[in-house]
Amino acid sequence: MTAFIECRGVCREYRRGEEIIRPLDELDLDLDRGSFVALMGPSGSGKSTLLNLLAGIDRPTAGTVRVDGTSIGELSRGELAAWRRHAVGYVFQLYNLVPVLTAYENVELPLLLHDLSRGERHRRVAEALELVDLVDRHRHLPRQLSGGQEQRVAIARAIVTDPAILLADEPTGDLDRTAADAIMSLLERLHRDLGKTLVMVTHDPAVAARAETTLHLDKGRLVARTAGASG
User: Fold this and answer.
1) pLDDT digits over 19-61, tens only?
2) End-to-end Cα, the chain, rounded Å
3) How many angstroms from the chain centroid is the CA of residue 110?
C-alpha cells in the first residue's frame, strides 16, 4: 500500500554567498493517513524545511514529495495554491493572526478563497470555533485574547477548510505549560475524532511524547524513530 505522505531522496539546498546550505539531504520518509508525528532535532536539522515542503510552501531541490498520490513538486504555481487551499492547514508558533480582525474574521479568512455562500462560510466558522471552544470569544480581537486562546483561533483557522493534513510548527513554543497542555489536548482530539494527519515540529520532549511517533532529524536526514505515549 502506498503511503499517504511519501518523500523519496528529498534534498533542499540554499546558496549563501559561496556556501551551499543543505537543510535536507536525501531524505526518505513514509507517513500513513491519519498518523500523528512529531519532528525533533537540533536547530538546522531540517524540521521546518520538511514541514514547508509538505505544505507546498517550498519545493525540493531534488527528489519527490507525494501527498495522497500527488507529486506536489510538479504542480504549477496556480495548481499548488489550489491544492494547498484544500489539502493543508498550517499552525504557526506565533499564531499569525490579523490583529485588526476578530477571532471570527480570522477563522473565516481561508474560506474567502473558496466558492462558498455567506451562509456556508458562517456554518463552517461556527463549527471550527466550537471545536476549539471559543464560540463565546468570536467577536474578540487577538489583543483581547490570551496566548492559548490566540493559538486556538489559529487552529480553528487551520481546520476550517477541513484539510486532510494539519501541519504545526512549534504550536506550543510561545505558551506556558498549562496553555501548552491544553493546545496539545486539542490537537490530540482533532487527530483522534476528525482523523487528521498531523505533523508537528517541536523542541519539547513532553510535547513530542503526545504524538504516536517521533522522528528525529539531524543534518537533514532521518536518524531515529521512537514511539510516543499514544503510539
Assistant:
1) 888 999 999 999 999 999 999 999 889 999 999 999 999 899 9
2) 20
3) 15
